[in-house]
Amino acid sequence: MAPTQACMNPGSDRRVDSSMFCLVTLILNLVLLNYSWGLSDPIVSTRELTVHVGDSALMGCVFQSTEDKLVTKVDWTFSSGERAKDEYVLYYYANLSVPVGRFQNRARLAGDILRKVGSLLLQEVQEADQGTYTCEMRLEKESAVFKKAVVLHVLPEEPRELTVHVADSIVMRCVFRSTEDNLVTKVDWTFSSGERAKVEAVLRYHPKLTTPGEYSRSWGRFQNRVNLTGDISRHDGSIVLREVKASDGGSYTCSVHLGDLVFRKTVVLSVIREETLVVPATVRPELLGGNQLLILVGIVCATILLLPVLILIVKRTHGSKSSADSAAMVKNLKNAKKAQPEKHVYSSIATREVTEEEDPSGKSEATYMTMHPVWPTPRSDLNSPVHKKSAGRVPGPQPAL
Predict the structure, then answer these.
(1) Dihedral of CA 277/279/283/285: which sign?
(2) How far is CA 335 from CA 169, 323, 331, 339, in A?
């Protein structure tokens, strides 16, 4: 009797160990049945990846299988937490890859679908991108779904503007974060001193350089001053620049190639000279915009036009002030003269009045003193005979009659 029949026949005289074997067989059949119906989708693994804001992240999704079956559908979803609603990031169907939602311009399918590679390249990572990304891959004529999850951690943005002193050294980082161990095929560093300046080669890493055993080489004026300091096996193409010169200031662009995938990062380097003093920032003419330049020209013209008027106003104000000062001085002099008392010269003149009829009492007549003001004699009359005559006679008291 078959094992399944023995398990279904309660009257069977099998031993206890045969019953246990039937139970295990039944459970195994149920598991296989659920797998074929797609009720239990296997999750192969969960990886973690840490990136900085503004960088790119490569989240791998590779189905290892020896069967020659084509991938019919790939879905990438995102969840920011346990209870958060899943968001679609990208889906691939009928040879068409479509990113959706807020990932529309930043996500794309990276890999060879024919080789069952449905990895996701997320560029310009944002803080809100932190969470769990799940890949679901389906093969033709297969009901099972292959799943893989990646937990993405997002760190603050690394400095894109670096400052270094002349003759010092500086490390410029360039790391391409990925969950897969893809080999770096090439690393290029270039330099430009301005927008329209010629692009110069700084360093190049390539496993197939002509010189045996040489994988990186510096170029031009950076020769013997630049070295690769990153770990290429970890997609790190960082460099160190030694003995920095004043002419090294500008933009440095790093390009990390992983087959057809290219990760680029630009770093702006500012070089400080030792003798340069830090002064407050001022508005330079070349930085002025059209409106600012027009306002500046208007202010200068208005100042030139108003300058004669200002000079005339100042002159008039000064003249009025001088006239007021002169009038005040004259008034003060007049007040001073008025304040002095007028000096009068008085003279005593004795008059004798003789009356025809004497006083019956026989008393003598009284002598009266009459005071007459004598004004100062002009200098021209001092030499006149009358003045001399009067000046030589001193009036005295007259005897009473």
Answers:
(1) negative
(2) 87, 18, 6, 6
CA distance 270 to 248: 8
> pLDDT tens digits for 30-72?
444 444 444 445 556 789 999 999 999 999 998 887 677 888 9
d(CA 387, CA 398): 22
Distances (CA, A) of 131 to 27, 76, 126, 177: 36, 13, 11, 16
Strand partners, 188: 204, 255
Q: Count helices and strands (H / E) in the chain.
A: 4, 21
Q: If we measure between CA atoms, which residue out of 126, 130, 125, 90 comes closest to residue 110?
A: 90
Q: What are phi and psi of 219, to 5 degrees?
A: -130, 160
Lookup: tokens for 188: 């290029």
CA distance 376 to 346: 11
Integer angstrom CA distances of residue 144 from 37, 38, 112, 231: 7, 5, 21, 39
Mean pLDDT of 133-137: 94
Which residues, including other chains, have CB under 8 Å from residue 326's CB and lie 6 or more apart? none
- Containing H/E element for 309? helix 290-339
270, β-bridge pairs: 163
pTM value?
0.56
User: Which token pair is 20?
Assistant: 């246990």
240-297 pLDDT, tens per residue? 999 999 999 999 999 999 888 889 999 999 999 876 545 555 545 444 556 777 788 8
CA dihedral 257, 259, 261, 265 (to 10 degrees): 0
